[in-house]
Amino acid sequence: ADWKKEKVAELEELTNKNEIIGIVNLADIPAPQLQAMRRSLSGNAILKMSRKNFIRIALGNSNKNIEGLADYLEGQPAMVFTEMNPFKLFKILEDSKTEAPAKAGAIAPADIVVPAGDTSFPPGPILGELQQAGIPAKIDKGSIVVQEDATVVKEGEPVPKNVADVLTKLEIHPMEVGMDLLAVWEGDTIYTADVLKIDEEETLQTVITAYQNAINLSVNAGIINSESAPLLIQKAARDAMNLAVNANILTSETTDKILSKAYAQMLAVASLLSSDALDDDLSEKLNSVPAQTASEDNTEEPEEEEAEEEEEESAEESAAMGLGALFG
Q1: What angle do CA 195, 76, 159 make, to 5 degrees?
Q2: Quick one: 112 exposed, middle or buried, by C-beta within 10 A (0-12, 13-18, 19+)?
Q3: Which of 4, 133, 197, 278 is the residue whose CA sits 20 to 30 A from 312?
Q4: 140 and 42, same structural domain?
Q5: Burial of 140 (0-12, 13-18, 19+ CB in 10 A)
Q6: Residue 17: how many other CB atoms lie within 10 Å
Q7: What mean pLDDT value characterizes the chain?
Q8: What pLDDT sits at residue 263?
């Protein structure tokens, strides 16, 4: 039939025009939620629902090596055409999902737990319904109370009808309604959902750690690049200052430090002498040594700590900017 050929031709044209093509599953999505999800993609992606056979033919006829996407046609499939980064597309679709009540026979996406506490239900038949669903409930002070957290369905198991009814009455909505992005094709590579689903915080921390390790390696190995050059110059300046002070090389930068060092050494020698060998002025100076020493000890460390904090903040900002480009 002509309409079938037109459908396939439309999918084929969109496949050839777009750089990123995804396969989504629209099964069990109510019409209102589907319309809301379409709006969330508006301007960023095109969603086309079609029969599995039509999609397979369009993928096979495409001028791209994209036939592998046909292996991910599940449920009620649809194609997504976009220029967005696959990870950003996955995140948008995941964020658009909404909570939904459990239906009898639905597969639990995770352990379904009824939390302990007051249900606000007065004594009545629902007490028996809760207990039959495996929920430890009792009457306490005129209302039905769940005595302890109860796992009523394990992850991957179907939801029994009586449990689904009880969960709905308790207003516990353990299911998610939304488009499941099953696979995305980009540049001859197919990314599956398990690859696209990543922990952003963990990934960000990994990138930051890798960046900091790379910077440390560059600085310690003396490798000059745009990131390490300022740190290498600072390190060289500190090393030169330490060398000059320890070697008593007088310059406009080292004179005060060398004099301070000599003064401290003088006090150290004086502290070894008996009190009879000291005049009043020197005794007074010695008595103030603890306060001065504490003050002197703290003069250098804050600068080093501030430098380290600045380097870490710079690393985190650079890494976060890179990750932001990835996820949008």
Answers
A1: 80
A2: buried
A3: 197
A4: no
A5: exposed
A6: 10
A7: 84
A8: 85
Per the CB < 8 A criterion, the answer to whether 82 and 44 are in contact is: yes
Do 182 and 168 lie in one domain? The reply is: no
Q: Would you put residue 219 in left (φ > 0), alpha (ψ -120 to 50) or beta?
A: alpha
Q: What is the pLDDT of residues 299-324, one digit of tens each?
A: 444 444 554 555 555 555 555 555 45
Contact 97, 200 (CB under 8 A): no
Residue 41 amino acid letter = L
Overall pTM surpassing 0.70 (yes/no): no
296 and 157 in a single domain? The answer is no
Give the pLDDT confidence score for residue 308 in this predicted structure. 52
Q: How many domains does the chain have?
A: 3
Amino acid at 9: A
According to DSSP, the residues that pair with 143 across neighbouring strands are 140
| CB neighbour list of residue 33: distance below 8 Å, 6 or more residues apart | 98, 177, 178
Report phi then psi at 161, rounded to 5.
-60, -45
- CB-count exposure of residue 9 (10 Å: 0-12, 13-18, 19+): middle
Containing domain of residue 58, as a range?
2-97+178-197
Q: Residues 40-53: pLDDT tens digits?
A: 788 889 999 999 99
pLDDT by residue (tens digit) across 5-19?
999 999 999 999 999
In this structure, the answer to whether residues 322 and 232 fall within a common structural domain is: yes
- List, for residues 169-182, the tens digit of each pLDDT value: 999 999 888 889 99
